[in-house]
């Protein structure tokens, strides 16, 4: 507790300094008095006694000062003096101070915001028990052209991994699921995003239920009694946070589910939209439970202490290879791959976020250079004063300290303002950046505060040190003799300014270039040809619960009458059904063989993504029929094994022969693979704007394929504004089945916007930072040039007086100003090329060396530079030579 | 009695701590006591006590209290804190080590 006493002492000395000083005097006086009276008692005369006492005591003033200096606040007093002096100096040039503070506030604010987000999203540990030992395990197909090689896992593989490997403490699985939640009382039915999790998932993650209990192993069985866990969100929203819901039943897909527990508010995995959890096995049927070819699950594993991720994975991979060999005819992966769970959660955001963080860092650096530049300019104006002070014996250190104090003042004021800006922007970003994972934990705290304080100190150093050192470098008497107007002035300082400016320009170029690339790639995404006509199309999703619509006849009847009713609505030109609209996602894929072809020699298995579609679908979306025909109305009702394929499919698998009339052989869940005859080839559509086109096969939507997805999308082409029809179409659904919720009521344009939201967000932000930096660079450029011209007024005056043409003067001034710009541009181009390579992974359809972006960036920079140069240049032209000479 | 010696560097703290270990004392008494006990050999420059006292107080090794002297005047009395007692032991130990080392050199070489 000694430090408390020490702190108390320090505080006492700080706040009661005057009374403490008086007491010290009193104490010393007492001492002297004692000595004097002792001396008198020893026989000295009073006057002699006093001087003798003082002799033995020493110099009271000096000792007084020494005692005071132990109070440890001296540096603070000096500092306060510096601050007061700095504030006074700054007040003398308020314009400079305001610009500098604003520039720093922008830089520090933006950097703090991004730091807050980066820290919460990328750096904070996951809210689970011992999160560093958690990994995600995926399947890895060697002979399959699938995404990044991390393929979701089949239930059978998961069960075997869990039973027969021992590198992990435990393994749990979860998969996405969806339910129609029936409305009780007057509530509307809704589609809830759900997940199926194995019973050991929550114990594995160390999650304690807020109310009730998690699943038991018995409940995690195919066909077991239905139970459900509520997330905190739906518990509050739909059940008013009433814990008496435990043990009661809710109706999901019109089946009763008993609520066993409520998850804590902090549990938002896999994302904040998940509303309910059911046992993993209950989302599967008996065949799927053991299937090795139904890839839909995510596997979380906890490493055993002392076991490395690599060695644990090796075992799984070896086992998976055995499974692959044992199921040769099915798409079973050859090995497994794993990555830390945190990487898995932030996978898609890591690069964009890092790019953004670098962008704001760049901007902060530019802001620093700008302030630094402003300081150099001002110190040039003050160099006489500095020289005088130097001549009078002011130490260089004191002068540097003074300058640093000013810089610190500006950066601290900028920091305070920046924190306010950042508090606003951080909240805005966290709520509007819809694709940001873990956004709910983004908040400013003491670490963020400490970070921004660190930024203040760092920026103060960056912005202040260089000018301070350069300003005090030539504190010699020579400077005093130097005429303030002497031609050329202080060349070294001009060089310093130009160098700073060149660096600033280079950084701006890099930032502009990266932003340009991101923006171009975003524009590319937005204008991607989906392969169909997307305007004036409304899409509405709905899912028919399997237990209610348990026969094909019921399903067909529903779809039929809905389509018929919708088609009769005024304003509707046509309507059709599809499982997933273009641009609406992957949905699923499957492997197949072609019986007419010899067994493939290639290592790649043939696969294509699948869609189920209505015959009308191709007409509604205006997807061209290239050859053959589409389904007839009859074929969609029966299971005639007909199939329509996309152009890419035909090109890839039937490059030498006509696909019409050929077959593909798929094994859904039938014991024997079935043959489907290809009857038509249609144009390609894109499933995801950021992904290349994939071969696609279309099955009849109502044919009752066993693995047909349960949800359908109704596509409505309209004559006018498609959104005007959203309510009428929903009413038709409700008229057919009031308990059936619809969701994702979106126009095709909105679907596109949704899928490009993330790219759009980071592209817009980076562009905003780049434009701000351009503005900062322009300010810097303008400042430097006006200063340089002001310095050369006499020279210019003489030139004009001696008969120089105004155009020559203009060329001189412009060339002088633009030289650092060209230098910066050159450095920046090299840096931009490097930056382009680094962000290559988040670019779509745009080369990192895109000439258009290069040209646009150079153009906008030069334009800004010329504009910033023009004003001082024009001022130079207006110089009256006589006036200029007279002021000398 | 020879000329009063200057204090060995850094020993003033030890002397002060040791002196007030018995009872609280004011500055003058401390100076006096050191002089007396050392048979006038150690002549503390009286004034330099005060910076040292304040430093020790700042370190929370001693605490100060204003109270009345026998003569009825107000004076600042210093006493050891618990931390000061530990510090005294530490300084004593290091002094013993140092002085015996010096002794060894002086006597044997």
Description:
Chain A is α+β, with helices and mostly antiparallel strands and 888 residues long. Chain A has four domains: 2-72, no CATH class; 152-332, no CATH class; 349-526 and 758-886, no CATH class; 545-739, no CATH class. Helix content of chain A is 53%, strand content 14%. In chain A, the strands form three sheets. In chain A, strands 1, 2, 3, 4, 5, 6, 7, 8, 9 and 10 form a ten-stranded mixed sheet that branches. In chain A, strands 13, 14, 15, 16, 17, 18 and 19 form a seven-stranded mixed sheet that branches. In chain A, a hairpin with a 7-residue loop joins strand 17 (663-666) and strand 18. In chain A, helix 2 (17-41) crosses helix 4, helix 7 (155-164) crosses helix 11 and helix 12 (341-381) runs parallel beside helix 15. Residues 483-489 of chain A have low confidence and may be disordered. With 109 residues, chain B is α+β, with helices and mostly antiparallel strands. Chain B has one domain (4-108): Arc Repressor Mutant, subunit A (Orthogonal Bundle), CATH 1.10.10.10. Helices cover 51% and strands 15% of the residues of chain B. In chain B, strands 1-3-2 form a three-stranded antiparallel sheet.
How many separate domains make up the residues of chain B?
Answer: 1
Q: What number of domains of chain A? A: 4
Task: Look up the CATH topology of chain B.
Answer: Arc Repressor Mutant, subunit A
Low-confidence stretches of chain B: 1-5
What coarse outline of chain B follows from CA principal-axis ratios?
globular
Compute the average pLDDT of chain B: 83
Strand count, sense and barrel status of the largest sheet of chain B are: 3 strands, antiparallel
Distance between the termini of chain B: 27 Å
- Which descriptor suits the 3D outline of chain A? globular
What helical percentage do the residues of chain B reach? 40-55%
The main sheet of chain B orders its strands as 1-3-2
What's the total helix number of chain B? 4
GO molecular function, one term (chain A): transmembrane transporter activity
Subcellular location (chain A): Cell membrane
Protein name (chain A): Permease
Domain MacB-like periplasmic core (chain A): 98-318, 508-719
